[in-house]
Every structure is written in C-alpha cells, then in structure tokens.
Amino acid sequence: MTLDPQPLAPALAAAEAAGWTTVRLDLDGVRGKAELMRRCGDALRLPDWFGGNWDALADAVRDLSWLPVPQGAEGADAAGRLVVVTSWRRFASARPEDWEILVEILEEAVSFWREQEREDGAPGLAVLLAEGEAEAESEPGPGPAAGAPPRTPRLKRRRG
C-alpha cells in the first residue's frame, strides 16, 4: 500500500493492462463509520455475511474469494487485485481514528496477500490512495502523505 497520493488514471490503466482486477472505493461524502462500511461493502462487492464492523472488514479483505481474478490468471502467473481509494482526504481529516483503523486493515490485508502470493502463487492485493484531478487542485499539500493524518506506531488494537 502506498500513502503517496497518486494520479488515478495511470494507475488504473497500468493495472488493467497487466490483467489485474480493479476496484474503486470512493469516500466522497462519507461522514461516519456506518457509511464507510456501506461503501466498502458496495465497492468491494462483499458477501452477505459482511457484518459492517472493523473485524468483519478485516476478515473480508483477507478472504476475497468473491472478488474475481481475471481470466487466465491462475497460480504463479496470476494477476492481482488493485483497490484504489479515492476522495479520502476529507474523511481522513474529519474521522482520523476511523481512517487510521481503515488504513491498518488495508495494510494488514496487503501483507497477508503478499505472503499468500509468495507461498502458493495466489493473486496479490495492492491498495492505492489515489488523488483525482479535482482533489489535487483543491487540496494540494507538501510531502509524501499530504492530507493523511499523522501515523502512529503500528500497534495491534481491539477494533469495535
């Protein structure tokens, strides 16, 4: 996962050209945890058992069995999956604790899928915080993680 905001179009084009399954999680207008869970469920096409809480989200992004892998992508030659998070800056600023938990869950999922890819050739998972053109113009910022709240040391914590 990269915390460097990236332009959206080149990332999607490169992933699709490489045969990756791409998913866009748009956080525009998300004001709270319940709406965030609905957006995650819709964007990731999560199964009916998704419980709409942090632990369920963490479990779901470690499963991904329902998220299709491109045709012909099997075993060690399998393409991956890219989740592009857009319009995230306002949510990160307004709900820094929820944002931090979401980032932690996504980082853990990327690590999990990277290990699976090494062990059995399963398709990997990448997450990109994208910066759309309108976002880039309206909220410029210095440095690599512009707009993201300060990071805290990675500690395992209980999610509620």
Walk me through what this model shows.
By secondary structure, this protein is of the alpha/beta class. The protein contains six helices and four strands, in the order βαβααβααβα. The protein has helices at about 10-15, 35-45, 55-65, 90-95, 95-120, 135-140, and strands spanning about 1-5, 20-25, 80-85, 125-130. A four-stranded parallel sheet has the order 1-4-3-2. The two termini are about 25 Å apart.
Global outline: globular
The fraction of residues assigned to DSSP E strands is 15-25%
What percent of the residues sit in helical stretches (DSSP H or I)? 40-55%
Pick out the low-confidence regions.
73-77, 133-158
* Structure class: alpha/beta
Query: What are the secondary-structure elements, in order, as H or E?
Result: EHEHHEHHEH
User: How far is the N terminus from the C terminus?
Assistant: 23 Å
What's this model, at a glance?
This protein has helices spanning 8-17, 33-43, 54-63, 89-94, 96-120, 133-138, and strands spanning 2-7, 21-26, 81-86, 125-131. With 160 residues, the chain is of the alpha/beta class.
List keywords for this structure.
160 residues; alpha/beta; 4-stranded parallel β-sheet; 4 strands; globular; disordered C terminus
